């Protein structure tokens, strides 16, 4: 057992930390207030290779696996949860194409995605369902060389950017769930206003209206009616990102709690002298460290998945744990700041608002525990 990072891993982690500290952090408040990632941030992420870390080098990716992806995501999320979320969903969409796509599909979409040309989406949720494919109502009907898609997708990340959307629909031929690659902003594609949400700003979510949107037959991903396996693996890969975003939030909370404990004075000396503050800092550190090693391990498993069902169970276990723990950690950091933590003068209020997103997305925390328990009890 070796807990040391390789030279390559250290370099990627450092590059992400430097970029996050020097470029993203100074813009984090603006990103939060405007709910928008400046183009210069996207350009930098693409130039540094952060839009394609785990994908094959031949397809324009970094060829560095998910273990490097989690290292970078942690640092980016430490600076801005919104930026890391957009990047996570982008990676999830591309990963589904990289894993299940034909040679032509991969060559068409992966190099552009890794280069920052467009951002990918992964669209399952509908007004009537967040997790049950049997309830999908968006329908794809074969018409000659095309599928014609009609329906509504809800809460879709990156829907406002050009690029591919891996979309799950009811297939009118088989009645099952199929996956397709839809080019966003094709004729018949339109969006709601972004939903106003409590945190994760910079990564807005939209309802997507699809009215007779034509998708070429060659853009079917995998086999007709076999989309559920793509969905399950895709969501599990998404949980690698979501868990690491929670981890980055914990790191930010830890650093802010330490800073405040040392700078806030009580009768002339820092509040760090109080045992109550020391206990909170130690709790935060333990929760951060335990989540950190679980995230790094899941990243390593994601690079080379031997058993999809086991991986999905492990991803669920971590996602439920990491997202709930990030909320506890953000609350502890808030407690160190007391009333000042509630003000926008300190980043901890944003860290708290961002933390409470993860337990409610990609399947709520209880669902994660149910998925894991089923894998060991059945
Ligand atoms: C910021 C954000 C980004 C998102 N991005 C995307 C995206 O890019 N693509 C996408 O497709 N979706 C996206 N979503 C949607 C999100 O993944 C779903 O909303 C989420 O999975 C929860 O689904 P739901 O809200 O329909 O909850 P439901 O599934 O309706 O669950 C509601 C409650 O019922 C309980 N419950 C439901 N089913 C069961 C069951 N079988 N057993 C026990 N309890 C159950 C749950 O525990 C939960 O407490 C996003 C959402 C947000 C907020």
Describe this structure in words.
There is one protein chain. This protein is of the alpha+beta class. The protein has three domains: 7-114, Acyl-CoA dehydrogenase/oxidase, N-terminal domain (Butyryl-Coa Dehydrogenase, subunit A, domain 1), CATH 1.10.540.10; 121-226, Butyryl-CoA Dehydrogenase, subunit A, domain 2 (Beta Barrel), CATH 2.40.110; 228-377, Butyryl-CoA Dehydrogenase, subunit A, domain 3, CATH 1.20.140. Helices cover 53% and strands 15% of the residues. It has helices spanning 7-34, 39-47, 65-79, 81-100, 103-114, 227-263, 275-303, 308-337, 348-355, 365-377; strands spanning 121-123, 139-143, 146-157, 164-171, 177-183, 189-191, 205-216, 220-221, 265-266, 269-270. Strands 1, 2, 3, 4, 5, 6, 7 and 8 form an eight-stranded mixed β-sheet that branches. A hairpin with a 2-residue loop joins strand 2 (139-143) and strand 3. The longest helix has 37 residues, at 227-263. The radius of gyration is 21 Å and the shape is globular. It binds flavin-adenine dinucleotide.
């Amino acid at each position: 057992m070796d807990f040391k990072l390789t030279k390559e891993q250290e370099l990627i982690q450092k590059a992400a930390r430097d970029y996050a500290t020097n470029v993203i952090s100074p813009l984090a408040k603006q990103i939060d207030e405007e709910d928008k990632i400046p183009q210069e941030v996207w350009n930098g992420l693409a130039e540094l290779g952060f839009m394609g870390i785990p994908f094959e080098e031949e397809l324009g990716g970094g060829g560095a696996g998910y273990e490097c992806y989690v290292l970078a995501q942690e640092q980016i999320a430490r600076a801005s949860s919104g930026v890391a979320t957009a990047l996570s969903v982008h990676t999830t969409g591309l990963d589904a194409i990289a894993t299940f796509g034909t040679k032509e599909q991969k060559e068409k979409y992966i190099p552009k995605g890794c280069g920052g040309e467009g951002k990918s989406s992964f669209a399952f949720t509908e007004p009537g369902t967040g997790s049950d494919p049997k309830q999908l109502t968006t329908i794809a009907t074969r018409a000659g060389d095309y599928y014609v898609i009609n329906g509504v997708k809800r809460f879709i990340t990156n829907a406002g950017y050009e690029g591919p959307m891996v979309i799950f629909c009811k297939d009118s031929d088989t009645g099952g769930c199929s996956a397709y690659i839809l080019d966003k902003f094709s004729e018949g594609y339109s969006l709601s206003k972004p939903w106003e949400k409590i945190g994760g700003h910079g990564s807005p979510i939209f309802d997507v209206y699809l009215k007779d949107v034509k998708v070429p037959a060659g853009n079917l991903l995998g086999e007709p009616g076999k989309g559920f396996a793509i969905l399950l693996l895709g969501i599990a890969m998404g949980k690698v990102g979501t868990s690491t975003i929670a981890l980055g939030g914990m790191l930010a909370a830890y650093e802010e709690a330490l800073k405040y404990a040392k700078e806030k004075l009580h009768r002339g000396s820092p509040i760090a002298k109080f045992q109550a503050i020391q206990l909170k800092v130690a709790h935060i550190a333990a929760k951060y460290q335990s989540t950190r090693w679980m995230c790094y391990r899941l990243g390593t498993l994601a690079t080379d998945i031997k058993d999809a069902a086991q991986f999905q169970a492990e991803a669920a276990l971590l996602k439920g744990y990491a997202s709930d723990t990030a909320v506890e950690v953000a609350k502890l950091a808030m407690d160190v700041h007391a009333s000042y933590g509630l003000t926008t003068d300190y980043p901890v209020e944003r860290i708290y608002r961002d933390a409470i997103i993860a337990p409610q997305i990609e399947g709520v925390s209880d669902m994660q525990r149910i998925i894991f328990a089923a894998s060991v009890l059945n």
